[in-house]
Specification:
alpha/beta, 281 residues, 14 helices, single chain, seven-stranded parallel beta sheet
Length: 281
């Protein structure tokens, strides 16, 4: 279900003790998930012994991080807002939302948040295009806008693409609300934060000077078709894919048909072999 975006502001006064890390490659992510209509509670504020090692003096000066949510699914944005957006409890103030690239650039430029939660696959060119058009904001020495990718995809090419574009971290949508709040604060302090298994993709990519080869077959697919392709290859049923991507089963069927046609494959078994051979699973 695609949202209409916009610049809805929310959040109350209050704050949170500093949860910034001490530098380096951090990891984030738990076993829970952010549902489409996540509960309002369940995200305890980091205490004096939080990720940044904040003590009693730090707790006396509440911190707040201003955040923009960029995701093309309105229901998911609503769920994230419910999980992290109660400012007095979490210290996170959601100052705007957007559903596509153009809206994202407009809202980010207008609000100048400390952190942008950015989906990788967006109408209008994807998260990489948002990063490209926000390069001057990221480079601002006094008020840098930092980006944290938050995506259903855990594919290496998606992770590497947004990190090369300038994002400070990448976490998947299985992350818990508590860990997401911690990741936001750490990124706002300049740390790099990744879901555990994704850090290896980045290290491997930047250890090599070779650019990844262009896959013309894969390039024929839209971003949404790639998402469906990976989930099909991992054995997900159509209903499971629909729930995961917040789309209808009929839409999933349409995407699968388009993928099979573009790749000249006959069934999902051939599709799985194709994806496995390219290490997309």
């Amino acid at each position: 279900m695609a949202g209409t975006g916009g610049t809805s502001a929310s959040g109350s006064t209050g704050g949170l003790g500093t949860a910034g890390g001490t530098g380096g490659l951090g990891t984030a992510g738990g076993t829970g998930g952010l549902g489409a209509s996540g509960p309002a509670g369940g995200v305890p504020a980091p205490g004096p012994a939080g990720a940044g090692g904040a003590g009693a003096d730090d707790a006396a000066v509440p911190r707040r991080v201003r955040v923009v949510l960029v995701d093309d699914h309105r229901m998911f944005r609503t769920g994230v807002q419910a999980e992290i957006g109660e400012t007095a409890r979490t210290g996170v103030e959601v100052v705007g939302e957007a559903a596509d690239v153009d809206q994202a650039v407009t809202v980010i430029t207008a609000t100048r948040p400390e952190v942008v939660l950015l989906d990788v696959h967006l109408p209008g060119g994807g998260g990489v295009e948002v990063l490209r058009r926000s390069a001057s904001l990221m480079a601002d020495q006094e008020r840098p806008v930092r980006f944290l990718a938050l995506s259903v995809s855990d594919a290496a090419e998606d992770v590497i693409g947004v990190i090369r574009g300038g994002a400070r971290g990448y976490v998947t949508k299985t992350i818990t609300g508590t860990d997401l709040v911690d990741a936001i604060f750490r990124v706002s302090e300049g740390d790099a934060v990744f879901s555990p298994r994704l850090a290896g993709f980045v290290l491997d990519a930047f250890a090599s000077t070779d650019a990844p080869p262009v896959d013309e077959d894969l390039d024929r697919l839209t971003q949404r078709e790639r998402e469906v392709l990976r989930l099909i290859a991992r054995g997900y049923a159509y209903k499971e894919i629909a729930k995961q991507l917040f789309i209808s089963v009929k839409t999933v069927e349409s995407h699968v048909s388009a993928v099979l046609r573009k790749l000249q494959l006959s069934n999902r078994h051939e599709l799985t072999r194709w994806a496995t051979a390219r290490r997309l699973v």
